[in-house]
Predict the 3D structure of the following.
Amino acid sequence: MTFSFDNNIPIYVQLVEQIKIYIISGKLSAGERLPSVRDLALKCKVNPNTLQRALSELEDCGLIFTERTNGKFVTENQELIEKYKKEYADALSKKFIESMADIGFDSGLAIKYLEEFGGRD
Amino acid sequence: MELLKCVDLCKNYGSKKVLKNVNLTIPKGKIIGLLGKNGTGKTTLIKLINDLLTATSGQVLINGQKVGVGSKSVISYLPERTYLDKGMTIEKVIKYFEGFYDNFDPEKARKLLEDLGLSTDLKITKMSKGMQEKLQLVLVMSRKAELYILDEPLGGVDPATRDYILDTILTNFAEGASVIISTHLISDIERILDEVIFINDGEIVLQSATDELRVKENGSIDEIFRRMFKC
């Protein structure tokens, strides 16, 4: 896992966001065991306390669970992963529609534009 | 109990008040940035905590005890300027540290120096400034201390060396220990800080959790600092 950070936004918020993307994209698979907080913090080059805070938040939303003696795991609840995936896709779509509106495309035109764009890279 | 506590700490140099009524508490297990412009009292505060200066009034408590000989084993201190005899080889410095500090781990130091590609028969005079900084940091971080105090560890080194220094701090501080890093190079370091302390004109003007401050003041710590202390 590699992370990059913007100093203007709380680091734990960015960690939550980026680990969430690892989970919904399947790069961290359902049921996978996470490295220990200290090891993972060193890998991401962040303060272990900050990572701990991010993991607690992910635990609160159910994407991660702790097994008392074994460490932390990614949830096996596919429905939940799908739910967060949809939420994330919704946010991206909303952002696209809004940005297109800023330059004068109504949503119909924006979607049409995207469809036509689909073939290009 | 808190690891470090400063109570109504004052330091005068002649008639000049360098520290004015500093009250400060540092808990265990945190990385803390002591941030202030040049000449605002950072190094004076650090020297008082290390019992290298005597306070004009007030107290510094480590684990509830007044600072003194006993606190030397609790604190691992990286001063702003080197105190190593430059004629010594790295091997000799390692032996020196081993004799001096019970909690120094020579194997750890050797391993870190090997990772840096430094041969231990090298004399300090033959090393570049950046390499000397790295050597000092390795020595300080190879002690199993409760509090690491690093005075300007990033001063005068290139950005790649800064990254090495930050990583070394992060990977090597003993679990449950705290780290105080004084610097005015804030943007390089703010990513790893739990808390920041702003010091200005000998007074603590702010102590806050880093992420909370970013939200509250809406910006990076570097930006908030610049806004607050605009010249």
Notes: Chain B touches chain A through 24 residues (CB under 8 Å). The helical segments of chain B are 42-49, 90-100, 106-115, 129-141, 159-172, 186-189, 210-217, 221-228. The two ends of chain B are 39 Å apart (CA to CA).
